[in-house]
Amino acid sequence: MAFSRATAAAVVALVVLLPHLVVAVVLDVGGGVAARPCHSASVDGDAGCLSWRVMVEANNARGWRTVPAACVAYVRGYMTRGQYGRDLSSVMDQVAAYVDTVEADGDGLDAWILDIDDTCLSNLLYYEAKQFGAYDPSAFKTWASKGACPGIPAVLELFVTLQAKGFKVFLLSGRDEETLATCTSENLESEGFLGYERLIMRSPEYRGQSSSVFKSAMRKRLVEEEGYRIRGNVGDQWSDLQGDYVGDRVFKIPNPMYYVP
Ligand SMILES: [Mg+2]
């Protein structure tokens, strides 16, 4: 009978405890679920910055002077951990698909426009060191003067392809011509950008004017005075791609680091 009582007690204990054990197991699993809000909170934090980045790329946010403080780490991660490279690659796939559909005429007047900063040459190292802070003309000039901006391989590939197809490639940059022309051309050369038709930089008469105004004026000159047909235009800023004579197709390269009007 003692055995029976012990057995009965064990059965009772099991019956009593089983729901608790089940609950405990569920709670343990639930612990993972309970951890989700933390995870979700992190994702939500990034999601806010993702929304901001999409807004920037779509040109809905204009005139911003710095990456929002809450998104500095996000932008660094975006630029350095692979997503920027994937996005850039996707853009360049679209450019390549378009390039396949256009041919250069034999008259030598079919042209492409490529921007330089963060299109042909990367300033990521500079902006990352500056925490993606406000534009600092003096510090940027010091950085650019070193002529050490890494080339962006996917854009170099396009540059080579365009020339092989007979297009004239114009490099159009808002950099100051008087102070940065030599280091810029040397930087381009050292990164493999050779044989372009012309490097056009901001002359003193366009100092203080927006990039959009300056670049529109330069494109107008190419088209109206020199007879070029701009078949394509690639830049990291909307101010590269809007205004007058933008070209038959424009392609926006990602850049959540800074805004140029
Ligand atoms: Mg640029």
UniProtKB/TrEMBL annotation:
Q: Where is the signal peptide?
A: 1-24
Keywords noted in UniProt: Glycoprotein, Signal
Give the matching Gene3D superfamilies: HAD superfamily/HAD-like
Which Pfam families does this chain map to? Acid_phosphat_B
Q: Which residues form a coiled coil?
A: none
GO molecular function term, any single one: acid phosphatase activity
- Similarity annotation: Belongs to the APS1/VSP family.
The record's annotation in NCBIfam families points to: plant-AP
In its UniProt entry, what is this protein called? Answer: Acid phosphatase
Q: Which organism encodes this protein? A: Oryza barthii
What is the phylogenetic placement of the source species in the record?
Answer: Eukaryota, Viridiplantae, Streptophyta, Embryophyta, Tracheophyta
